[in-house]
Write a structure and sequence with these properties.
Blueprint (H helix, E strand, L loop, with lengths): L1 H12 L8 H12 L4 E10 L5 E11 L3 E8 L7 E5 L2 E5 L6 E4 L12 H4 L4 H4 E8 L3 E8 L8 E7 L5 E7 L5 E14 L2 E10 L7 E11 L21
Antiparallel strand pairs: 1-2, 1-13, 2-3, 3-4, 4-5, 5-6, 7-8, 8-9, 9-10, 10-11, 11-12, 12-13
Length: 243
């Protein structure tokens, strides 16, 4: 009896570890995917039904939860183009036009399965509220609802790896309940500086049968930038920030 009492007292004395709620899990996912302020290079590969491919290379900068700039490095036909996102607002700068043009989240500056919301993605927690969390064997299944009507997808189902707190699969839905696309995160890589995240994102859509798009990350690192960088006037100068 004394041994039982001793064991019970020891268990009571152990610190209680509070389980993360859905919002905290989503916030952890955001920070594990990328620092709050960073720079990186991304390659976008669009694969056609016949197997042909078109590739783009983007130099990308992000600051805070909802400011992002992406500069096209290649192909030559797109070199110098730059996109800016501030909250729900997006613009495309084309050197030959000389002024930024408004674009929407559901459009695609590359014409791929990835739309502008995917290419210029900000923090998930900036766009979505967590409606529910379902505990599965190896994953948290988050049901997310868009905070505003400006968000590209009305709802998301996000499977989050319990150990790494990184997304594995995301299903994106329209307000009608129609599945728009599925996003699959693969190839977890250590980028250094405490950043360990998937280096590959693949997507396909029942709306574009036979088409597939892939996004590859490289040289992802923490960086700081002045607020001026995330303005329309700075878009023609983003190239200057490459080191």
């Amino acid at each position: 009896m004394k041994k039982i009492i001793f064991v019970v007292l020891c268990l009571i004395a152990l610190p209680v570890v509070a389980a993360l709620d859905g919002t905290q899990i989503l916030q952890k996912v955001d920070r594990n995917l990328e620092p709050e302020s960073y720079e990186t290079y991304r390659k976008l590969i669009d694969i056609q039904p016949d197997g042909s491919k078109k590739e783009y290379v983007l130099y990308t900068l992000k600051k805070g939860r909802d400011k992002l700039v992406a500069l096209f490095m290649s192909p030559a036909s797109d070199k110098g183009r730059a996109t800016l996102r501030i909250g729900d607002n997006m613009w495309l700068y084309i050197p030959d036009v000389g002024r930024p043009l408004r674009i929407t989240s559901l459009q695609s500056v590359t014409g791929s399965v990835f739309n502008n919301a995917d290419i210029l993605r900000v923090d998930y927690s900036a766009e979505y509220n967590v409606e529910s969390v379902e505990e599965q064997k190896d994953a948290h299944l988050l049901s997310l609802k868009a905070k505003t009507g400006e968000v590209a997808y009305d709802k998301l189902k996000m499977w989050v790896d319990k150990q790494m707190l990184l997304p594995v699969t995301i299903e994106a839905f329209a307000a009608s309940g129609l599945l728009i696309k599925t996003l699959r995160f693969k190839d977890v890589k250590d980028f250094g500086g405490g950043i360990k995240r998937p280096a590959t994102l693949e997507t396909d859509s029942p709306l574009y049968k036979g088409y597939k798009s892939v996004m590859l990350w490289s040289a992802l690192k923490k960086s700081t930038f002045a607020d001026e960088v995330f303005t329309l006037n700075y878009l023609p100068r983003v190239q200057e920030l490459r080191k």
